[in-house]
UniProtKB/TrEMBL annotation:
<dbReference type="InterPro" id="IPR006328">
    <property type="entry name" value="2-HAD"/>
</dbReference>
<comment type="function">
    <text>Catalyzes the hydrolytic dehalogenation of small (S)-2-haloalkanoic acids to yield the corresponding (R)-2-hydroxyalkanoic acids.</text>
</comment>
<dbReference type="InterPro" id="IPR036412">
    <property type="entry name" value="HAD-like_sf"/>
</dbReference>
<comment type="similarity">
    <text>Belongs to the HAD-like hydrolase superfamily. S-2-haloalkanoic acid dehalogenase family.</text>
</comment>
<dbReference type="InterPro" id="IPR023214">
    <property type="entry name" value="HAD_sf"/>
</dbReference>
<dbReference type="InterPro" id="IPR051540">
    <property type="entry name" value="S-2-haloacid_dehalogenase"/>
</dbReference>
<keyword id="KW-0378">Hydrolase</keyword>
<dbReference type="Pfam" id="PF00702">
    <property type="entry name" value="Hydrolase"/>
</dbReference>
<dbReference type="InterPro" id="IPR023198">
    <property type="entry name" value="PGP-like_dom2"/>
</dbReference>
<dbReference type="GO" id="GO:0018784">
    <property type="term" value="F:(S)-2-haloacid dehalogenase activity"/>
</dbReference>
<protein>
    <recommendedName>
        <fullName>(S)-2-haloacid dehalogenase</fullName>
        <ecNumber>3.8.1.2</ecNumber>
    </recommendedName>
</protein>
<dbReference type="InterPro" id="IPR006439">
    <property type="entry name" value="HAD-SF_hydro_IA"/>
</dbReference>
Length: 237
């Protein structure tokens, strides 16, 4: 793959562009201090994120109608609050904690490198995040998207094919001229299956100090980079 074979870069967001775990720990710690809660917020964040795919699966397999990710995050939060024995939060506090996903911090390299990439390429989200969530996050963090697309626009959660195909279609770019950028191998495999080019980003701190093991030695991806700065370098911008 050469840089001139690509017209658009499409990005997974949670974990790839922003630090979901650190954001939950940050807001959970503040909530815990307010209420005197003794909680391991890292474990809490992992438990909440652990419900992500099961809740998405209930929509993907047709057991329930389409709902935006904010609703699924709320359902997951209520389960994890009960799991950790956290009671007594009022509705405003629960609603605010759900919206932690709207105010996640970008990885340190993200904004500057995306700004470089934007000079040459169309940049779009291809995320399971709903539109308002992704817009709020971008405004807070200064993420320079050209378009906010993905699951809610397609009414299909990744890795359903339509999430990828609808994004390429709305950008008016053939899938083969879209580079899917993600920190999760399974996302890239699904995108590749729809004709996208692929770039894996090593977000080694996504799960705190735990090692990431989801990229096999024999992967067949177009690019593997340490961060977005290296991606911009590799694409010559």
């Amino acid at each position: 793959m050469t840089p001139d074979e690509i017209d658009a870069l499409t990005f997974d967001v949670f974990g790839t562009v922003v630090d979901w775990r650190g954001g939950i720990i940050r807001d959970g710690t503040a909530l815990g201090a307010k209420h005197g809660l003794a909680v391991d917020w890292g474990h809490f964040a992992d438990a909440w994120r652990g419900l992500y795919q099961p809740l998405l699966g209930s929509v993907r397999d047709g057991r329930r109608p389409w709902v935006p990710l904010d609703q699924l995050h709320r359902e997951g939060l209520l389960q994890v609050l009960a799991q950790f024995g956290i009671h007594g939060l009022d509705e405003a506090e629960i609603a605010d904690f759900v919206r932690v996903w709207h105010r996640l911090d970008p990885w340190p390299d993200a904004v500057a490198a995306l700004t470089r990439l934007k000079r040459r390429y169309v940049l779009a989200t291809l995320s399971n995040g709903n539109v308002r969530l992704t817009v709020n996050m971008a405004k807070r963090a200064g993420l320079p998207w050209d378009a906010v697309l993905g699951a809610e626009v397609a009414h299909a959660y990744k890795p359903m094919p339509e999430a990828y195909l609808a994004t390429a279609r709305l950008l008016d770019v053939p899938p083969g001229r879209c580079l899917m950028v993600a920190a999760h191998y399974s996302d890239l495999v699904a995108a590749c299956g729809q004709g996208f080019r692929t770039c894996y980003v090593w977000r080694r701190a996504e799960y705190g100090t735990g090692e990431k093991h989801d990229l096999p030695d024999d992967h067949g991806l177009d690019l593997v980079v340490e961060d977005f700065g290296e991606l911009a370098d590799r694409l010559g911008v």
